[in-house]
Here is the input.
Amino acid sequence: MKNNIITDIPSKLTLIQEKLCQLKIAGKFEIQNGDEGYSTAPSNIALIKYWGKNLNRKQIPDNSSLSYTLGGFRSFTKVTTQGRFLPETNEKTISIKNKLFLNNKDIEVPIPEKMDILIRSIFNNFADEITLKIESINNFPTACGIASSASGYAALVGAIADLLQLKKHLRTEELHIWLTEWARLGSGSATRSAIQSSEESFIKWELENNSNENFTETSEMIFHPKWKQVEHCVFVLNENEKKISSSDGHKSASTSPFHNIRVAGVTKKIARMTKALKEFDFETVQQISEEDAFAMHAVMQTGNPKACYLDEETSKAIALFIQMRDINEILAFWTLDAGPNIHILFYKDAKEILRDYHAKLQELLNREIKVFKNVYRGGLLIGKNEYYNILDKELLKSSLN
Ligand code: DP6
Here is the structure.
C-alpha cells in the first residue's frame, strides 16, 4: 500500500483500470462534479465459510467459499461526486475526502479507513481531487445477524460502476472482474454479493491457486430449480454489535490448531457441495453446511486471541432446532456467521414446524426472539431505475410470514 492506495491489485484488474485510463485520455470518459451513481446489492450467508486470510497480501482468503444469496436483505447506495477533476492527468497522488451518510440520516458518520482507501484506489489515475458523498441504506436492522459489509461494499462498488458508466465502457466479463475484485478488496464476503444475477442462486468463490502472488479465482453461480422452493430466515438471539469484528477474527484464524485442517478439507467440500446443489441433494447440503459452521466456530474458539461468537443460548437454540427437525423429518438446516444468530434454510413445507420452533425457542429462552424472513429481490443491480424499483421504504419486519 502506498499513499493510502492499494497498489498490489491483481493483474487482471490492473489491465481493466489501465483500459479505463486510456478511455479517459481519449476523451471517451468524463467525470464531473455532481455526477451520481446508484446500486443495490444483496447480503449473503456462507455455507462453506471464508475464514482466515493471508495478512501479507491484500485480502486473499485462505480458502474458497460458497454462499447463498440473501436477495431480500439489501444495501442501497448512492454516490455523488463533489470536487475537481483534471482532464488528462497521470497524477498518482490524489486527495479524496469522502463522506458517508447511513440510513437516510443527514448526519455524516466517520468513514471506515478501509472504505476510504478502497475509493481512493478505484479513482487512482481518474481524478486529482475528489470527494465522494456516499449515502447508504440497509433494509435490514444493523446487528441482526446479517452481514452488512458484504452488501455494503458490493453496493458501493456497484454505485461507483454506475457513476463511471462501466456497463457502457467494459465488456460483461471485464465488468464482472472489476466488480468482484474491488468488492473483495473492500470485504472478502462482498465478492459473493457483487454478482449480477436475476435468479436466486448459490455463489461459489473458488481460489485456484493461492499459493503465490498470482492467485487466480473464479466466482460462479450454481442453481437447480428446486432451490426456488427453499426459503431463508434468521433468528436473532443477540442484537448487540459483535465484540470482535470479522476482520479482526480473520487475523487470529491461523493460530488455531484446527485452521489448516479445515482449510485443507475445503476443496473437497466445495466439490461435494457443488454436485449436491446441482442435484438438489438436500441431505448432503445440510450435512456439509452444518459441519462447516461448527468447524469454523471451532477455529474461532481455539485461536489466539480466541473469538467466541457461539454462546450458550445459540448452542441451546441449535440443539432444539435439530431435535424438532429430526422428529418432524423436515428439510431444513442451520448455519451461523461470525455471530450468535441462527440462519435457517428450509423447504417451504417446513414453515409450520418453524413457527412451532419459534414459539418453543421463546419459551426456552424466556423472552421474545425476532425472526427476519428473506424474500429474494435479485443479485447486484446497477443503475438509478434498478435502485428505485426495489428500494424498500420500510425496514424489514420481524415475522415468519
Ligand atoms: C464468518 O468478509 O466480513 O462471514 O474480508 O475482513 O471484510 P473481511 O471479512 P468478512 O468475513 C466474513 C466471514 C464470515 C464467513 C463468510 O462470509 O464466508
Remarks:
- The two ends are 48 Å apart (CA to CA).
